[in-house]
Design a protein that fits this description.
It is a single chain. By secondary structure, this protein is α/β, with parallel strands linked by helices. The protein has a single domain, classed as Metallo-beta-lactamase, Chain A, CATH 3.60.15. The strands form three sheets. A six-stranded mixed β-sheet has the order 1-2-3-4-5-6, covered by helices on one side. It has a six-stranded mixed β-sheet with strand order 7-8-9-10-13-14. The protein has a two-stranded antiparallel sheet with strand order 11-12. Helix 8 crosses helix 9. It starts with a strand and ends with a helix. Bound molecules: zinc ion. Zinc ion binds next to loops.
Length: 257
């Protein structure tokens, strides 16, 4: 199988990821918040979409589904516990699915917290994580709890370091500014800022990114580090006893940043 993974920019700062099998020119669409960009690309490149994967219920991830299903008559995979338009295959934790036309094998991960029922899709070393993890940041609590999102990020952290993370928003530079406020002495933050500025100046996405990179500078994956715990304790005025406490007050800090 020969694979290309391509981002289609959508709305202000979303990415719709296309998993393209270049041998038979098929594509699986992840989180289509809009449809026009995908439709144009398929037409230009003579690619046939074969399935849609949804990570969670938010409009900027699902609003293109109805039009794509109407046009291409393709199945929709998504979380069993959330409302996803045109859902044909509801999924739960650890389920394995195969999309025959694209040759894509996926494992479902329950990574709730941003929304309660949010799922991710793992294939080989690639993780489509929706709004759970962003480069240098993480999703806001819009339905799930801090404990849930903290546990989900811990699960992601335990994947191999070479896992490639396909996030769905171009929030990286803003997130890095916050990361730098938390850990001003962390040199990996400045290196990543320089790298992302150069990419964005050329209109290139800052994504995907490896888990190994994220662990160096993403404060939400570093809530057990002393430097982050001390900064969060100082900012919140709270006693930070563990990584989960740290995560909770770090998330609040970022919400008001
Ligand atoms: Zn969302």
């Amino acid at each position: 199988m020969s694979i290309t993974i391509k981002p289609i920019p959508s709305l202000t700062d979303n990415y719709i990821w296309l998993f393209i099998n270049t041998l038979n020119s098929t594509a699986v669409i992840v989180d289509p918040g809009t449809s026009a960009g995908c439709e144009n690309f398929f037409e230009q490149e003579k690619i046939r979409p074969v399935a849609i994967l949804a990570t969670h219920r938010h409009w900027d991830h699902v609003n293109g589904i109805e039009q794509l299903v109407k046009k291409y008559d393709i199945p929709v995979y998504g979380p069993a516990t959330e409302f996803i338009p045109c859902l044909t295959t509801p999924l739960t934790e650890n389920e394995r699915i195969r999309i025959p036309e694209s040759g894509l094998d996926l494992q479902v991960m329950d990574i709730g917290g941003h929304t309660a029922g949010h799922i991710g899709y793992l294939t080989g070393n690639k993780l489509f994580c929706g709004d759970t993890l962003f480069s240098a940041g993480c999703g806001r609590l819009l339905g799930g709890t801090a404990a849930q999102l903290h546990a989900s990020l811990n699960r992601i952290s335990q994947l191999p370091d070479d896992t490639v993370i396909y996030c769905t928003h171009e929030y990286t530079l803003d997130n890095l500014r916050f990361a730098q406020a938390v850990e001003p002495d962390n040199q990996d933050i400045q290196s990543r800022i320089d790298e992302v500025k150069a990419l964005r100046a050329n209109n290139l996405p800052s994504l995907p990114v490896t888990l190994e990179m994220e662990k160096r500078y993403n404060p939400f994956l570093r809530t057990s580090k002393k430097s982050v715990m001390l900064a969060v304790a100082k900012h919140s005025g709270q006693q930070i006893k563990n990584s989960e406490d740290c995560f909770r007050y770090l998330r609040m800090w970022k919400d008001g940043f």
